[in-house]
Amino acid sequence: MKNRFYLAIVCISIIFLAAINAKDVSATPWPGPDDFGYTGIEIPYSFTDISGTGTFVSLSDDQVSGAIPIGFTFNFYGVDYTEVYISSNGFITFSPGMDDGCCTGGAIPNADGSDNLIAGYWEDLNYPPGNIHYQTMGAPGSQRFIVQFTNNPHYSHGPQVTFQIILHEGTNYIELQYSNAPSDGGTHTIGIENSDGTAGLLYARGDISMSNIGLLILPHMDMDLIVSTLPTVSTFSELGFVKRITTIYRVLNQGTEPSFSSKLAFYLSCDQILDAGDPYVGSVNIPALAAGQQTPTGLASFYVRPPAPVGCLQYLLGVADANNNNPENNEANNVSATVLIIRGR
Ligand SMILES: [Ca+2]
Ligand SMILES: [Ca+2]
Ligand SMILES: [Ca+2]
Ligand SMILES: [Ca+2]
Question: Are 176 and 149 a contacting pair, CB within 8 Å?
């Protein structure tokens, strides 16, 4: 009897643990990558208002629209789509017949009948009042498809939210822009989910407000910045107590995806490894780079006061993408070092 009791406990425990593991494996927190390789970054707020130019979407509260043309082919989790369906509860889906997602933001991923979606600000929004518009704009090859929620209140007369879900042609980037999306204390979901609710990238779920911020979700993480030139012609001249360091530099995007603008930061170090205590000496701006593109040769100059003993400072380190604007396929190769000729004081 006792053995059977313990066996039952063990079986229940295994089932319980399996259930927990099944849930944990597929839940990918920001910034990813998720099981498919989607990665997210926060980007500056940039809002092209289409409420006066876009096509008005007539919907009721807690309703999903009919098929809406994207205007180009958009790839989402490996599948090409030309149409989306808009839920008045703050998300778009690429599948027909999905649940409208009332009355709270769902978990991601979760096969709950609201799947294959981009949750801009999924919660129980009301509609009308407020407006939903969509518009395709831009030059063929690099068009954008924008869905804009404008002043949609939380059900029924709560704070109003204005945000956009933007699909990018060619790159298949997903952009979210929040003009003002104040929480009403409910559970809101921001993220993406695949067609059968088994994979997803979650930015946040809960009592969250979004204002004057953008998010960008990228289907691949194959940009790779390196400092390609940081030569030993760097000079280290003495101007009394203050030293002047001059170096030339180039940064290369050796990946297959375009990078965003970023910063190249410089540090002094006793070795070729960047440590937390290495003194920061300055940074320069690096523009967005196409795949395979390299910056022109730049010249950077810094005035520093080296800490004693001066003889320890042997290296100038250059760190590409110092603020991590670019999710890269290799974050470990961003530091380059060059030897400095150190003279005593
Ligand atoms: Ca789902
Ligand atoms: Ca609603
Ligand atoms: Ca890199
Ligand atoms: Ca990076």
Answer: no
Instruction: Check whether residue 207 and residue 232 sit in a common domain.
Output: no
147 and 29 in a common domain: yes
What's 276's DSSP letter? Answer: T
Q: Which of 196, 218, 240 is the last residue of a domain?
A: 218
pLDDT digits (tens, 9 = 90+) for 72-115: 999 999 999 999 999 999 999 999 999 999 999 999 999 999 99
Stated pTM of the model? 0.77
Domain boundary among 188, 218, 248: 218
Q: Looking at the CA of 197, name the nearest ligand.
A: 1
- Ligand 2 centroid to residue 27 C-alpha, Å: 26
Contacts of 54 (CB under 8 A, 6+ apart): 133, 134, 135, 146, 148
Domain, as residue range, for 327: 225-343
Report the candidate in 44, 42, 45 with the shortest Cα–Cα distance to residue 204: 42
Cα 317 to Cα 58, 272, 321: the distances in Å are 57, 7, 13
User: Are residues 262 and 322 located together in one domain of the fold?
Assistant: yes
Domain count, the chain: 2
CA of 127 to the centre of ligand 3 (A): 45
Cα–chain-centroid distance for residue 326?
9
Distance from the alpha carbon of residue 28 to the mean position of ligand 1, in angstroms: 14
Same domain, 298 and 200: no
- Counting ligands in written order, which one lies closest to the CA of residue 87? 2
